[in-house]
Amino acid sequence: MTLSKLSVFRTIQRRLSSRPQHRSMTSINGTLVQGGKAALNGDRSNLISFSSRLRGGRALAQDVWSIYNVANLPADCINLGQGYMNFPPPKWVTDAADEALSTVLPNHYSHPKGRIRLRNAIKNFYEKSFNRDLNVETEILVTSGANQGQYSVFTAFLEHGDEVIMFEPFFDQYLPSVTFNGGTPVYVPLHPQTDDVAPNHNNWKIDFDELRRAITPKAKMIIINTPHNPVGKVFTREELEKIAVLAEEFNLLVMSDEVYDCLVFDGKEHVRFATLPGMWDRTVTVLSAGKAFAATGWRVGWLIGPPSIIFPTLAACTRIVFCSNSPLQEAAAAGLEQAAERGFFENQLKEYQERRNILLSAFDKLGMKYSHPEGSYFVLLDISRVKFPEDYPFPESVQGRGRDFKACWFIALEIGVSSIPVSEFYCEQHCTIGENFARFAFCKDEETLRKAGERLQGLAKYLV
């Protein structure tokens, strides 16, 4: 080091030592270190502290998606854990994407509200189910996936300390999206009643007295997810009407996550929360092209709601992403435009029912209990009877977690089928509720599900 460089470096050291030191946290083990002091000791790996909100939202914790990632499991393990398809979107939808890519305008910025073709397609497709005319300029907003749309709503409406009611088990992205925007999650668990021989969605109960007690003067929002991930519960009209009463009484903004609206089985009724009396004015409905057209990587979703919700959300969305993927918006528009004449959603529903039944028949053959899914493409298997050796060589990543983490790891390695432990979708205080369950996804082709069902029969020797 030259004399001049050494002089500069020592000047920086003096300035660092004379300033208050910001605390910095490693992303590996969560240990807090003094960034400035570490620099003086020659460690320059964590000079700048990052926001504490990353801890509150579990963003730094090793999550289930990384623990049960295909890279950590045997190469031939069948992945029924993560909720993405192993089959392509419809060819006529991907053809529309190809066509958009081959022209000029769809390769450039779209309006922050979304491409007008897609907004018109959304209007025409959803007006009937919402029982109202939809205004493409003020009541529809295209987003970069449903998750980014939800995030923009939180950004637009939450003040620091505002409380958000979340039913457990919850979609894991809700938590960081709330906390990153200053909100405080308030957890209300669905209570499983597992005494029945064949539990179903009706066995996951809302305690409405508990829900009422959870609503404080700080409550700003409530999130409803129907059909529900991971339970497969389709909330009944009666349940939603009771929630509506509370939303009106306590003036709550309602986020109705209905991304699985096209996957409701056995003739069950999907009730759009926004259609209940008085609920349109306080409800934003979240929907997804990825779930609708087996294109989860496209990251195209949309919000439907009154101008009072859509306008501030648009302001936030514009500053977060500006606009969403232009050519794939064109493809999603083509999907909605042609779905009815092709009978697409009716046929897709039949295909998913068959996929569901293949997996459920494998569980039936084993004599294992599960929550019969009436919506979405997930099923919860009761794994409380699965016995694994106490001295099994579990990795550090599942040590100290719920029993379901170990059971899912054991099943993945010994049986060759991966799943997701459900306690991940609970707060720490309630995680024991989920420890008896593993989530299996049936958004896979029939051959894969049959092969998985055959492998799962190997669980019989581990049942007690």
Could you walk me through the main structural features you see in this protein, from its secondary elements to its overall organization?
The structure is a single chain. The chain has helices at 3-18, 35-40, 53-56, 64-67, 91-101, 116-130, 145-157, 174-180, 208-214, 237-249, 289-292, 307-320, 326-342, 344-366, 403-414, 446-456; strands spanning 23-25, 32-34, 78-79, 140-143, 163-168, 184-189, 191-192, 204-205, 219-225, 253-257, 283-288, 301-304, 370-371, 378-382, 417-418, 420-421, 437-441. The strands form five sheets. The chain has a seven-stranded mixed β-sheet, with helices on both faces. Strands 13-14-17-16 form a four-stranded antiparallel β-sheet, with helices on one face. The longest helix is centred in the last third of the chain and has 23 residues, at 344-366. The protein has 464 residues and is α/β, with parallel strands linked by helices. It has 16 helices and 17 strands. Helix 8 links the parallel strand 5 (163-168) and strand 6. The N and C termini lie far apart (69 Å). 38% of the residues lie in helices and 14% in strands. 43% of the residues are buried.
Task: Give a short summary of the structure.
The protein has 464 residues and is an alpha/beta fold.
Secondary structure elements and their pairing?
Elements: H1 3-18, E1 23-25, E2 32-34, H2 35-40, H3 53-56, H4 64-67, E3 78-79, H5 91-101, H6 116-130, E4 140-143, H7 145-157, E5 163-168, H8 174-180, E6 184-189, E7 191-192, E8 204-205, H9 208-214, E9 219-225, H10 237-249, E10 253-257, E11 283-288, H11 289-292, E12 301-304, H12 307-320, H13 326-342, H14 344-366, E13 370-371, E14 378-382, H15 403-414, E15 417-418, E16 420-421, E17 437-441, H16 446-456
Parallel strand pairs: 3-15, 5-6, 5-9, 9-10, 10-11
Antiparallel strand pairs: 1-2, 4-12, 7-8, 11-12, 13-14, 14-17, 16-17
Helix pairs in contact: 5-13, 6-13, 7-12, 14-16
